[in-house]
UniProtKB/TrEMBL annotation:
It comes from Somion occarium. This is ATP-dependent RNA helicase. Residues 83-257 form the Helicase ATP-binding domain. InterPro entries: DEAD/DEAH_box_helicase_dom (IPR011545), Helicase_ATP-bd (IPR014001), Helicase_C-like (IPR001650), P-loop_NTPase (IPR027417), RNA-helicase_DEAD-box_CS (IPR000629), RNA_helicase_DEAD_Q_motif (IPR014014), SPB4-like_CTE (IPR025313). Residues 1-28, 512-573, 643-663, 685-803 are annotated as: Disordered. The Q motif is unique to and characteristic of the DEAD box family of RNA helicases and controls ATP binding and hydrolysis. Its main location: nucleus.
Amino acid sequence: MAEAGPSKVPQKKRKPTKPQVRSSKVKRISQVKSIEALEQAVQQYEPAPDLKAFSDLPISELTKKGLKKAFFMDMTDIQAKSLPFSLKGKDVLGAARTGSGKTLAFLIPVLEILYRRKWGPQDGLGALIISPTRELAVQIFEVLRSIGGYHAFSAGLVIGGKNLKDERERLSRMNILVATPGRLLQHMDQTIGFECDNLQMLVLDEADRILDMGFQKTLSALLSHLPKSRQTLLFSATQTKSVSDLARLSLKDPVPVGVNPESDSPDDAHIVPKSLEQHYVVCELDKKLDILWSFIKSHLQTKTLVFMSSCKQVRFVFETFCKMHPGIPLLHLYGKQKQMTRLATFQRFTTMKHAVLIATDIAARGLDFPAVDWVLQLDAPEDVDTYIHRVGRTARYESAGKSLLFLVPSEEEGMTQALAKNNITAEKIKIKASKTQSIENQLQKLAFQEPEIKYLGQRAFVSYLRSIHLQKDKDIFKLDQLPIERFAESLGLPGAPKVKFLSKEMAKQKKNASRVVTSIQTPQSNVKKTVIDNDQSSDEEDTEGLSDDSSGEEDKIENPKEGNLEKPSKVRTKYDRMFERKNQNILSEHYTKLIDHSADIGQGDDEDDFITLKRADHELNELGSILDSEHLSKRKQRLALSKKAISKGGPKGHKLIFDEEGKPHELYEMKAVEEVFKDNEHVKEAGKKFAESERSKLKELDVIDKEEAKEKKREKKRKRKEREREAEGVDMGPTIVPVDDDGYISPDFDLPSGSEDEDEEAPPTKRQKGFAMENAHRNHRPAERTSLEDEEELALQLLGSRR
């Protein structure tokens, strides 16, 4: 659109000339013909055995330019095997080891399918790529931008931790969407205008991880929103039963693709790269941090990735190691970080040459960190799949790498056997004690100086034990064989924190101990009895408990054939053992000694019964006689005590208290004064003396109050006279205020008392006098005199007139 001129008159849009229209038509026609030719080439394409270059594939020139610009020239095994099928529109079940190029294996078909179907902005969402983690989704989106820059599609990234409102505004314009399951389902349920009815392709990357993270229900809900007439590509580094079930439900006649040239079975996904050197070391739990610190100090020119089992451990090790200054940049990555922090850490570690990243298993899947030299697994992985994903962060593509697995002595046998079952061999190495630096004292100093470090250490301690407690494979992870106290000391803690689930686990193990079947000979008879011992009690206690039962109280069964009586064998239950415990009657014996159940307290001959309480027979016959009546049934007795019966005027209960003699009394009883003070003459005399002293005090206070009232009255009169003299112009000098006057006037003396001061008025002001004189001159009569001199003059005039 042309710019406006000086007169600000908008210019009309120029119509395209005929040559321009012809050239655009020619371009469209040529593009349609090229797409048709590309479609025919794809359907007729048969891959060669030695297929390696991307240029040999039947793909568009736009995609080839993007691949060349991103320096992707040759294909990997998974790409060469899956692309010929996925480009034809078939469903693919891909299983490949980590670092084998699965991302391009599904991004190239996404671009090509939409390009051949002439997908435009008005067509809506055409391809959906679901990733388990945010970091992997960001990585896939960056690769899509690098190879799809020459296409006209719009692509979007939808992950948790970002502004939901901004995503809603752009979501309706996206042709290709990369998303995590949770946020995608949120948009499908809440965002208006977001529809997937026209979806052409669905890609599930790291499908096993999506299911392991608890997104199985979310994924099922997502698949219910999507059309069934779509192409689905499912890629994973490991093939589990849950992944197979998902493939059976979401894929139609999928083509299984593996990495082994001799077999296309997905079971070959457990093969690790040949360029990976795998090692493991057996060390005590309290020596792990010492070995890790020594390793970092001796490998300052490498790029290392350290895996731990919990977020609290990652944060504790990161904070403490940073304060100890190892001499190499330290980074940490875990799930509870903010989204921007996670992305910044991911990008920093990707670009750095020498660094140490301490992370949880959030960094174990799909992330492509270039040039990682070492992968350390400080905590053992939960299964072989997790081990494969962890070591897959190094030795990617054709580069080399090394891995080191830390195992405690109780984990060595189980973990090595599990790895051997999957054709994975790791070489055992030993750490020289002379080259290992102990950091226990430094951690103790940090925990003592900074309470935050101590708190992080406690949380790391509990989180590690919880992770071991929650592991499924109990043949490998044995919580009861860990040196818990020494582990707490190695973290710098003064003692092992209390762990609730640990105590519950010990109690559970004791309760569910293996039952031991023993045969015991009773002393009273020659009958053998079978006892199922459910805990670790002694044989003497069992024999003692059985001897009471074999005294002839058991049921006897008559054998009609032999005509004699036999005692059957008895199986003791846990209830029998509970009631046979020796310490069960400690309190009960003490209680029976305190209570004498005999009628007379003096009948006891035992010397231990000298302190006894006689049970009193409380004669409560009012309500008890009604309820205990023989003429009433139990049902009617219960109904008599119900609230409904009481509200209708039935018998109402009331609370009683008992005195020292055991006699009942009402809760509140009024007693007469004579009864209270009966036979207490000194109490009456004391009352009289107290009354007389109070009367004398009241008289003295009455005199003082009257004097204060008179003084206030005199002071009030004196102030009034002062105001009158001030009005006459007489200077009375300084006013003397009594010292004991606090300025308070009692309300009783402010009221009119009918005295001479009742009708007095305030003296007139000068302004009022002027108005009075002026009115007198007007009316030709003398003005009112308000002073004494005027009154005397008026009296003389009156006397003279009478004479």
